[in-house]
Amino acid sequence: MSKTDDRDPQEPQLNSDRVNNRSRRPSSKAFKEFIGSHWGPRTNPMPKLQESAPWAHKHRLAISELFKGERLVIPAGQLVRRNNDNDYRFRPHSAFAHLSGLGQDLEPDTALVLHPLTQAEMEESGETHVAYLYFKPRTSRGSEEFYADSRYGELWVGARPSLEEMEALTGIRCAHIDTLPDALAKDLGTVQIRVLRDADVAITALVETARQQAGLPYGEDSQAADDRLEEALSEIRLCKDEWEISQMRLAVDATKAGFEEMIRAIPRAIEHHRGERVIEGAFGAKAREYGNGLGYETIAANGEHGTTLHWIGNDGRVVPGDVILIDAGVEVDSLYTADITRTLPVNGRFSEAQAKVYQAVLDAADAAFERASEPGCIFGDVHDRAMEVLADRLHSWGLLPEGVSVADTLAPEGQYHRRWMVHGTCHHLGLDVHDCAQASADMYLGAKLQPGMCFTIEPGLYFRTDDMAVPEELRGIAVRIEDDILVGPDGVCERLSEHIPRTIEDVEAWMAELLG
Known about the structure:
The chain is α+β, with helices and mostly antiparallel strands.
């Protein structure tokens, strides 16, 4: 039954109802009785506790320790409208995934709430909070929702888990989303509350209403408190645990498979008028086969397009004699993602000019990696070391302004070398491709590298075709080499993507093997 079936034909139709004009849904009592009957028992067994559950519990303990006595609200997020009445595939907020262990698309409109325990409860349990998942479980097959609700109905989107099934899957107590307003309001005033406010506007509105009714600061007056929660949720992800590292390894391995599929697609890409999209599509297929999908939009940038740092249009040709810069990562089912860049010669061999630029970038990447393993290394030092190598190489090529030394350009008032390398060299990596982005500066750029940190090293050089400050032979060459790095237990770094060829010789041999 559409919303408009019972409308008075003389009344104007609301625009919001017009999406239902394209179809008619049976509304007779006989139909409702028939579709709700003759269903057998469900055959799916009760789910087992997911592998991530114990680790998610530890993550919840970490955030709970920072906010004792406070109620913390971490929404999964809402479905996002793509166009008209079509939504994008759901992907939960990374903080929610980190604390719940849920990587599946089971939980739009869900909230994870950490309720503070009383002193007696804390002494008994040894914990400071109890976690609850508030979500909309499936209804019976005799309900109208079963067949009529395109957002939640089982015939439309499949069977949502029951409360019991979600508890079995996550190890977290569960309650119906309809009980959330009362749960948020309980003891407010004596209990403070914080919300990850940008994750779900509807749930944030419930928190704000509860604050206002309890006489607590709300709106702009509660912004700082909520911002501190968001900051802390980033900072507890800076060092990955054993399970998270295993997921990062899976993501890198899947990404290697995707790169190999892209290399195999190069001959077809050369023949296609949108060859870059042939490359992009080859990787996207592997990302869906091996995991949840893409960790971010793939960059497949041939020639001059590689000088546009975030080239995601991917609508150009793939041209023999050029290099193609490919930046891509698979997001596995747990939502952890790799982030790899390789620059490949389209015809399988680098020209002399291309090899010159490539080797400079490779040397910068290797120097940065060595610096990362030195005792006491600060995160920002890794970028600085890469810049020293690139500045020295650009100086030796005569590209810096006359009279400018390497020391001059590396000084804060110089930075001439950054004309050809304007982005940063490193960022944290994990559930987000730019993970932990809300962490404070002293916990990010200014922090010493710690075991469990996972980050990228990705220097590059980008010479546009219209850049008259470089020799003609270098114009149109863009090279970036990006690897995923893990700080080991002893502080020594491991290149997780070491097995994805990266030297000139190895890249050429890799391509020759895959292309026959």
